[in-house]
Amino acid sequence: MSSDKVGEARTSKHIRLTSHPGPNATPVIRWGAATAAERGPVIGTTTHRQHRNVVGTHSGSYGVYRALAVAAGNLVKGHRADLTNTAPTTPIGPYPQWSDAHKIVSLDPWGAAVGEVFAEQLAQGYDIRPTIAVTQAHVHLPEIKQAIAFQRLQIDGKILLDDASATVTKIAVEPVWWIEGVAKRFNVSEADLRRVMFEETGGMYPELVTRSDIGIFLPPIGGQTLYIFGNPRDLANPEVTLTARVHDECNGSDVFGSDICTCRPYLTHAIEECIKGAQAGGVGLIAYSRKEGRALGEVTKFLVYNARKRQVGGDSADKYFLRTECVAGVQDMRFQELMPDVLHWLGVKKIHRLVSMSNDKYDAITGSGIEVGERVKIPDELVPADAKVEIEAKIAAGYFTDGVVPDAAALASTKGRDLV
Ligand SMILES: [Zn+2]
């Protein structure tokens, strides 16, 4: 079966699917098709139900807020987005990976360009919304100011400006799941995945089980934000040195500077490396995924902190994963299987410098066909004292290091602070 046929929509007994949409037809989605016209638009409108060709709604994780706004009378039901001047500041793709159905299964490669590639359907009245937005920004970080002060970075007026801000292209990506492809990534049957997602969301999306003819799901989960240092087009050129970090959200550290983990220091170190790489003629990428607390959520995370610090013997590296498992039932729910999709969307073929020690991330990236050169670990001096428990436990569990892998005795003697 050729890749562009893999995602072809199944025949429906409920709705008439057509690739030649008239004002009342439901457009077909042929996931992985070579062009946007053949692929068809993703439509999650709640207004014209006959146009819908997905389970769920646009901006899935904000759907309940939208419902509240409508219920409270703040938002007119059926509001159509005015997309004037919202087009990407930098075009991304299309790249060959876009038309390989199984290369990208969890985002819509055409999601940034809907205003252009589906102009005709928009004019016909279809409510097609971008699931990706591309813009420009300047970012100010105290760690980068410090790197300039210590002369690790130099202002060049292009990547790093006189006020110590870095120029970036930033991209927000919302999830769009081709259910068949997602199921295959996890080696489960599509039917089982649909049933379990229906059950575990408390029956929130009955169409998952009643409408097997609809192959696309807009899940109510966080997406990703990309920060690109240098020219985004260079990401697809394996000849240009790419420095990249794929980072999973940790609000406590990333934003508030909590010192029990290495998240912010590693993130800002990666940004410094990205800037350095871009200034040397390369390109830098931070792919930030909204998977707070290993996708277990912040409440679970804080409960685990208490359990770690209150256990007999106090917080120690040898019990690090065990305490998470006691509270959450698993050590981690981030599942890096879908993470490389965004790299393929950007056309990435090779990451020369991967600023990550995670074996799960490394395996997912290389397993998806992207070459990885050097792996860059967090410098020891950037690990907060109370985060030694985390980093030592992770290294012992298989995280990349060029240093010593701690043994059982070393893990047991790596202690964290008490609760106060
Ligand atoms: Zn963290």
UniProtKB/TrEMBL annotation:
Domain GTP cyclohydrolase II span(s) in chain numbering: 241-376
Protein name: GTP cyclohydrolase II
Gene3D superfamilies in alphabetical order: GTP cyclohydrolase II (3.40.50.10990)
Pfam families: GTP_CH_N, GTP_cyclohydro2
Keywords assigned by UniProt, alphabetized: GTP-binding, Hydrolase, Nucleotide-binding
Organism: Piscinibacter gummiphilus
GO molecular function annotation: GTP cyclohydrolase II activity
InterPro entries with a match to the protein in the record: GTP_CH_N (IPR022163), GTP_cyclohydro_II (IPR032677), RibA (IPR000926), RibA-like_sf (IPR036144)
Residue ranges occupied by any GTP cyclohydrolase N-terminal domain in the UniProt entry: 13-200
Domain of life: Bacteria
Enzyme Commission designation: 3.5.4.25
